[in-house]
Specification:
Blueprint (H helix, E strand, L loop, with lengths): L8 H31 L4 H4 L1 H24 L1 H17 L1 H7 L2 H28 L6 H27 L8 H20 L12 H8 L1 H9 L2 H30 L5 H26 L5 H20 L4 H14 L2 H10 L6 H8 L4 H16 L7 H18 L1
Length: about 400
Amino acid sequence: MKLVSKQYRLPFILITTLFFMWGFARAILDVLNKHFQESLSISITQSTLIQATTYLGYFLMALPAGIVITRWGYRRGVVTGLLLFGIGSLMFIPGASLASFPIFLAALFVIGCGLVLLETSANPYAAELGAKETAASRLNFAQSFNGLGCILAPVIVGGFLFSDGNGGVAVPYTVMGVIVLLAALIFTRVQLPEITDGQVNAADETEHQGLMATIRDLWGRKMFRRGVLALLCYEIAEISINSLFINYATADGWMTKTTASMVLSFGALGLFMVARIVGSAVMSKVKAEKVLLCCAVMTVVGASAVVCNAGWFSRAGVFACYAFEAIMFPTIFAITIGHAGKSVKIASSFLMMTPIGGAIGTALMGYMADVTTISTAFVVPAAGYFFVLLYALTIRK
């Protein structure tokens, strides 16, 4: 069965470029932690405000994002998201000139608001561009380009920031802002077909029954509630590991900062991208629920190995987390959307609130790293993966 039918091929290609963009933007945050710790003389715990502020934007903007795409469609949601993304990136110029951490945080908040609009629009749109049976596989394939963005960001931006004589953090963000605003212009010129479910338009139905009724209907669905919680726990694990990978790799002299940013790109996130592509292929033949269960078991094992602080065994555990977590977000997202009825756009907005878990997880992990060790702090992602495992066991039944 084809992932995307011929009539939706061009829209799918255009939407897939957005996955790359927000993957790149989110991966830069993992470099900023270490960079700001040194350039602004702040602690690990303070640096986790980078993730907290960005994902607070996700949390606060997610429901408005769902309302925007419900009333005005996917294309306007994408354009609005790109505009906020570009404006936030350009705010790094005054932040750098004043060396002001609060201005940087404000810029990241605006970027977070833009990114959640993109993700709220693109994730369900990609899932709906074809047969329901291949939704998880199709979304995993699109998310592979998110992985490509994650690979390139640490090596490009990290190599720039950690080199001698760099032009500061404003340079990469200015370049990114200009590119994103150009992309917004392009999307104002293209038409994205609105996807409907059966003979009922989801936007019309939501308008008819009212927003609060739609929300009550969604939260009355047990499998939808469980999916949102599972995605929240996944974000706690995935974002916290990414955010403090460079700290972990440099803590005992295992790597230098520059090497760690390279390994994060081509090693950890490269493995993540390949695993997502492989997962997409596997799920075209094996039920997504079974693949999710197997991967959840392996991530719990990998994170627990890091907590043990057992040399190369623990280091291998970090990479096991990247390999086996790769299919989790798109798989949980697609399964949960499948239990949302016709309120897909509002359901997507609730799912896109879950990156706030990354802010919580990163803050907890950063605090534990400051008061204990970075290895011990991996108990935070281990707990997140464990809840995903419980979810996988539940849906298997």
